[in-house]
Amino acid sequence: xxxxxxxxxxxxxxxxxxxNQLNLAAAFAYNRKKYISxxxxxxxxxxxxxxxxKKTINLTxxxxxxxxxxxxxxxxxxxxxxxxxxxxDDTLIGVVEIASLKKFESHQIELGESIASNLAAxxxxxxxxxxxxxxxxxSQQQAAEMAEQEEEMRQNLExxxxxxxxIDIACVIPGAGSWDxxxxxxxxxxxxxxxxxxxxxxx
Length: 203
Known about the structure:
alpha+beta; two-stranded antiparallel sheet; 3 helices; 25% strand; rod-shaped
C-alpha cells in the first residue's frame, strides 16, 4: 500500500467453510480509521464482482458515496480504486482492494498483480502447513491413546492369566480350600496357559 502511494488497502479471503463469502483478513489504513470486521458475499459490490470475474478492476471515476456502500474502504472517496483477484491456478483465494488519491501507473498495477499472485502461493502454503500440523498432532494423540490401550490390555491379560492359574491349581488339588502346605505324592498339578492352550502336568 505504501509503495503504491495508496491510502488504504484490504485483503479479503474466501471463507473455507462457505465459498460464497469473503472475509476481511487484513487491512491497512494510513492516517485513517481502521477497518472493522467485514464480510462480503461473492458478487456483492466491487469486491464481490472482482471475485466473480477473477480479473483486475481499475476504477478512476468513483462516485462520492459509492465506495462506502460497495468497497468498505472508509469515508473518503479515493480517486483510484484497484481490485486484484488472488488466484491459485484457476481457484479464487481472495481479493486485494487498494485505494489511492493518485491514479495508479501501469507498472504499479502490474506490481500489484504480481504481489497478488505471490500472496496466493503464500496463503496456500500456510494452509497446507497448518493442515499438516493439525494432522500430525491428531496422529500423535491417536498413537498415545493406542499405546495406553495396549498397556491396559496387557495388564488385564496378565491378571487374567494369574487368575486362570489359580483356578486351575485349585481345581486339581484336593481340599485346596483348606490346604496345609503339604503336596501329596500322587497328585497332579495342571497349569493351563489360556493363550497357547498348553497344559503342564507336574507329578
